[in-house]
Structures are given as structure tokens and as C-alpha cells.
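To the wet lab folks,

You asked to see what we're planning to order before we commit. Fair enough. Below is the target structure as C-alpha cells, and below that is the sequence we designed to fit it. If anything looks off to you, flag it before the synthesis order goes out.
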């Protein structure tokens, strides 16, 4: 037996009475043959094909030669049953943190929200004091029902289509970069003791990314642009309650990230995309360092 052939027998197999037997299970009589190699296969081994049945080895060899379908950004195409996994996980994380806030109270908010530098109790806390994690955790933190309800509705409205168009990894990269771009912009421009929280920066980033992807795929973007404009108007009419800096920062980073993903040249797509993500991340880190030097 050739060790590379797995459990394939070295020669033709025969059943007890000399009739054809499955090449993988010599003791099983069968009258079914592989449509490609014509080896006999039993009902357990045969794989349905467009014409007749195939053996497992022919199916495996065929998959190696078939070019896998890719999204416009180079991601893997997923079946509907396996789509939107990242979106669902992100919504689940936001809901879990919201429930934690309801159970534990303001201690969680004080620990996780974005704040530049402020006195909380007897301690000075904030990103400028080394709490860089707040730039990420603030994007999963909500206190009010209406706030998380709107953000999760928007995430569910935009997320699945973008995740399908970009692929899971690239979609997650756009989401996290938008989130961090929003919190970094807020950290840079807001008063040092002004708190900020919510997934709105990431959501606005998805709005921007959806417009870039839709333009690339030649969709009618008028309804989406109108919805974005309405949300921007609401943002700037309520600056006392809404952190416009996070919204604008997330939107800008979302647009740039999506451009990197869908307009990278196909021949060097992955290299350009990884380089683009690293450049955007470096710009976010540089923004945080500049603001930290101002506050300390």
C-alpha cells in the first residue's frame, strides 16, 4: 500500500463471490463506481456529484484544483448559515458588558470608560496615566437602554452585509480600527476629565465603510448616505450629550480602512491590506502618544 494513498488498497478489490467491492472497504460488495476514476465505492464512501457519484480521493483532488471564490476584499466567501458570526459576537460582547454594568453598577463604568486624566476617588486615572485599555473597552460600554439599543440596531443593520463583502478578518479589522480611531480622536480633542463611552465610533466607521464598499459594488447609496447625514445632524445638535469627536473619528477611520481593503491591488492584496492596517494603527498610537505628552 502506498502510504500517500491513505487506506486505498494496492490492487482491485473483490467481494466474497468475486463481485466488485469498495476499494476502501474490501469486504463490502457494491455496483456503484466513481464517475471520475471508476473505482467501486460503497454507500458510505460515495459522494454525490453533479453527474453520478465520486470517491473521496477524487473529491479531494478536485477541490485542490478549483479556485476558491473570494469577496471583493479577498476574504473567504461564506454560506448564509455561517455568515455574520463576527457581527453576532460583537453584539454579544456589547450586551454582556451592558448586563455587567446593570449588575455591578458604576464601578464598571469608572473602570472601563474613556477618560483622559481625572481624579476618581483618591486616585488619578485615565489613558494618560497608563490605562490604554480604556481606548478599547469604552467602545463596548453603555449605560442607557436607548444608547445600546440604537448602536446594536445599527451594528446589525450594517454588520452582516459588510462582513459578507469583506470577509470576517477584514471586517473585524475595520470595526476595531474605527472603534480605536473614534476613542483616540475623543482622547485628543476632549477635555482631559470628560468621560466617553459607547460603540458609536465603531458604528459610524461601519457607515463609512458601507459607503466605500457600496460604491465599489455600484449600489444605490442614496438611502445609506441620507441615514448617515441624519445621524451626523443629530450628533452636532446634541454635542452636550453626544461625543461628536468619537463619531467623526470613527467615520474617517472607517472610510480609510475600507478603501485599503477594497481598493488594494489584487496582485499584492494581502501585503497592501496588512501594511494599510499597520499604518492606520500607527497613526492611532501616535495620536494617543501626542495627547499623553500634553497631559503629562
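Sequence we intend to order:
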Amino acid at each position: 500500500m502506498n502510504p500517500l494513498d491513505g487506506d486505498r488498497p494496492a490492487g482491485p478489490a473483490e467481494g466474497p463471490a468475486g463481485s466488485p467491492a469498495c476499494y476502501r472497504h474490501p469486504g463490502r460488495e457494491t455496483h456503484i463506481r466513481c464517475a471520475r476514476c471508476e473505482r467501486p465505492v460503497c454507500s458510505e464512501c460515495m459522494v454525490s456529484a453533479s453527474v453520478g457519484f465520486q470517491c473521496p480521493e477524487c473529491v479531494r483532488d478536485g477541490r485542490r484544483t478549483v479556485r476558491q471564490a473570494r469577496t471583493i476584499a479577498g476574504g473567504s466567501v461564506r454560506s448564509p448559515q455561517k455568515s455574520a458570526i463576527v457581527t453576532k459576537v460583537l453584539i454579544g460582547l456589547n450586551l454582556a458588558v451592558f448586563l455587567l454594568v446593570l449588575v455591578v453598577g458604576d464601578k464598571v463604568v469608572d473602570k472601563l470608560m474613556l477618560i483622559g486624566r481625572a481624579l476618581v476617588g483618591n486616585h488619578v486615572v485615565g489613558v494618560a496615566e497608563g490605562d490604554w485599555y480604556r481606548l478599547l473597552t469604552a467602545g463596548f460600554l453603555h449605560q442607557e437602554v436607548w444608547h445600546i439599543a440604537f448602536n446594536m440596531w445599527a451594528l446589525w443593520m450594517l454588520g452582516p452585509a459588510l462582513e459578507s463583502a469583506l470577509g470576517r478578518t477584514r471586517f473585524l479589522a475595520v470595526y476595531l480600527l474605527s472603534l480605536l480611531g473614534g476613542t483616540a480622536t475623543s482622547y485628543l480633542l476632549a477635555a482631559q476629565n470628560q468621560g466617553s463611552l459607547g460603540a458609536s465610533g465603531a458604528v459610524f466607521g461601519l457607515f463609512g465603510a458601507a459607503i466605500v464598499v457600496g460604491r465599489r459594488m455600484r449600489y444605490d447609496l442614496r438611502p445609506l448616505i441620507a441615514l448617515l447625514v441624519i445621524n451626523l445632524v443629530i450628533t452636532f445638535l446634541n454635542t452636550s450629550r453626544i461625543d461628536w469627536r468619537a463619531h467623526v473619528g470613527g467615520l474617517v477611520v472607517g472610510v480609510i480602512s475600507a478603501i485599503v481593503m477594497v481598493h488594494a491591488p489584487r496582485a499584492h492584496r494581502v501585503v497592501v491590506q496588512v501594511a494599510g492596517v499597520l499604518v492606520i494603527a500607527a497613526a492611532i498610537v501616535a495620536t494617543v502618544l501626542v495627547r499623553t505628552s500634553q497631559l503629562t
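Structural context that might help your review: The chain has two domains: 1-66, 81-295. The chain has ten helices and four strands.

Thanks,
Computational group
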